[in-house]
Structures are given as structure tokens and as C-alpha cells.
Specification:
Distance between the termini: 47 Å
Order of helices and strands: HHHEEHE
Structural class: alpha+beta
Radius of gyration: 15 Å
Strand order of the largest sheet: 1-2-3
Number of helices: 4
Length: about 100
């Protein structure tokens, strides 16, 4: 059985999921630290693409509020994870089917 280097496998997986940098993945585990427990209960990061972070929101009122909070959230992401990792955040309402 031939072994494959973990680094090569990881690069392939990241490329397949359009993740440019491992720093982008940190948002999923650091979300509550960045936005706080209360906000994290109503939101969750679902994907990143081309420097945009997509956040699912469970309530229309929270969706409205988060649009005002966007600059602060981007600042906290830069402080916690990495400067200039995301150029924008897009919030969308969770499907409630």
C-alpha cells in the first residue's frame, strides 16, 4: 500500500472546496469567540468563497440587526483570525421548511 503525503492530500481537499488558505477554515471553530454566545446561537458560518463569508441566520430580526453589525464583525475577524481574510460577509435567512 502506497502512502500519500498528508500535505498533498490537504491541498487537494482545500482546492476542491475553493479554500485559498487554512486561515479561512478557522472561522468555523472561532465563530462564537468572534461574535459572542448570544449572536452565535442565532447564526452560523456555512461557507467561504472568493473572500466572502456566508452566514446563515435563524430569524429575520437578527438578519436585520447583523447588517448593522457587519463592520464590527469584520474587525473582530481580523483581530482573531487574520487581517484581510474576508472582504465581505453575506447574511442570509435559514430555510425554515
Amino acid at each position: 500500500m502506497a502512502f500519500t503525503a498528508l500535505q498533498g492530500t490537504l491541498k487537494k481537499i482545500l482546492k476542491r472546496h475553493n479554500i485559498r488558505d487554512l486561515e479561512e477554515v478557522k472561522i468555523f471553530s472561532a465563530w462564537e469567540l468572534i461574535v459572542g454566545q448570544k449572536t452565535a446561537r442565532h447564526t452560523r458560518p456555512v461557507r467561504t468563497a472568493d473572500g466572502i463569508l456566508y452566514i446563515e441566520v435563524d430569524d429575520p430580526l437578527w438578519l436585520s440587526q447583523l447588517k448593522y453589525m457587519k463592520p464590527d464583525i469584520l474587525d473582530r475577524i481580523e483581530e482573531t483570525i487574520h487581517k484581510d481574510i474576508y472582504k465581505d460577509i453575506r447574511f442570509f435567512l435559514k430555510n425554515t421548511v
